[in-house]
Write a structure and sequence with these properties.
Blueprint (H helix, E strand, L loop, with lengths): L7 H4 L8 H7 L2 H10 L2 H10 L15 H8 L3 H9 L10 H8 L3 H9 L19 H5 L22 H6 L2 H10 L12 H8 L4 H8 L6 H5 L9 H8 L3 H9 L8 E6 L4 E5 L1 H5 L5 H13 L20 H8 L3 H15 L21 H8 L3 H9 L14 H9 L10
Antiparallel strand pairs: 1-2
Helix pairs in contact: 3-4, 3-5, 5-7, 7-8, 8-18, 11-13, 12-13, 12-15, 15-16, 16-18, 18-20, 19-20, 19-21, 21-22, 21-23
Amino acid sequence: MNKSCATAAALGAFLCLGSAAWAQGTCTFANLADAVASGTYEDEDLLWECSHTFDLSSDNNWGDRLFNIAVRETANPRIVLILSELGAPLGASYVALDIALRHNPHTDIVAVLMALGEESILDTWQIRPEHRYFAPRLTGEEFRPRFPSADANVDCSEFLTPRFMAKTSPGQIRHCQARAHPRARDGSENTALHLAAQYSEDPSAIDAIIAGIPAGGRPAFIDARNREGQTALHVAARHARNADIVTALLAHGADPNALAREDRVGILRQRRGIAPLHRAVRHDDPARAFQITARLLAYGADMEIRTPEEEEEEGGRMALHLAAHGARTDDVLWLLLQAEQSTAGITEGWGEHWLDRRRNDAKQTALHFLTQTSNTPWVFGLALDYGLSPDAQDDDDWYPPDVLCRAWHRCGNHALAS
């Protein structure tokens, strides 16, 4: 994919090719409207290319803007990120999220808009049924799930097992949960909710299990810990087979900032631990890593929570560091950078850029981690565009270009731009 044009200013090494005649004939509102709606890889390329000759925040004769069309019709959340990146800001339509909630059946689009700080003025009844798990966050109202009817045609003897959760319908799960003790656990102290979070593909399974718990005991049950100190949301963030398993847990009140292996560090007793967001950015499936990260951010996951010292070689890592170092897709890093920018602004005070202040205990920035695991020019350009500095030193006096040289044998100050 040609992203060099979007990062040319930072890299100083790529030229955007294409004649003016080509741009005039191809970069029209009609063509770009079709592109943002369909959202193929070729359409993404077209947006990058046309951003140099076409005002992406312009509208057509009916006052419809590209961003409006995208949030109404596209199934590809990268289109939202691209338009935001290339100058069609979220503010181009003050009802962008409402358009998606009313018209777009794809929950990924709603999740990304919410992750980037978009707000809604809709009431719950105006939101499409596909987006019901976002309603509590959007409206502040108590979640009213559609509990599946119990189905007694099932053997409950294997209730607390992965096989049961993977193969059994939500109605049968509700029947067995109602018969089980509310505090029933397996050998690893997992509740039925932990097991469903990992092995079920149907978010209604979450509704079914919670339906079998007395109302007064539901908050404690939803955030119950297993032997590793993880809630069901931790498990879902790392292993869910369907991203809306995470959304269902959040809708029922799961804490997006619950910490496993919690610790207190320093004079100020800074709270540290493993948050669901730390698990999400390293999900084995790249697409679900992005989807789940967006959902957690949409529900208020704190991007500044740091890992405890014993979790990694260096402690104090934030989700941004983990995404730069270990995410299986660059889209997660891109989403976090946009979300960080939307909440932190361009600069916080004087001196270092705000992103360079996001350092771990070894004083490493996200760019230090990125240079360890990636040698993709557009990703470096993206990081530099957002303000990460190649001149930031860590505790060992290493600069990001030094790390790049050591990891990939691409050396010299020009390495990040070649």
